[in-house]
Amino acid sequence: MPKAKAKKKKEPRLTKERMKKARKPAKDRKPLATGAATAEAAAASQPCLDALDAAFIVGGCLPSGTHENDDTLEQTGLISENLRLIFRECVFNGVTNRGCDITRGQIPNGANTTVGEVQDTIIRNAH
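The chain above was modelled as a monomer; its predicted structure follows.
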């Protein structure tokens, strides 16, 4: 038994009206970036803080003494939730005083959070 041929769908013809519609730019499209806009976008993608800034901010908010990056906040002396909230506020103020934006909730302050994790987080989230 011979196979039945599949019917081909007809492609719609490109009429003058369709060509006019195709040439019109979409209303929701943004214009291509100019040199200034590209520079702004590149600056926005760069971190606002570097590792040294983050270390100074976090170190300045910790209790006095020597602290390593792998020390937890509890090991540094921030033994209560209240002390860790004060630490978070201090870090938030340090970041914003350098002209960067961050929300308090983006700054980790759990007892088992390490100093290095706090530094990495503020580098990543500060814009």
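The two ends are 70 Å apart (CA to CA).
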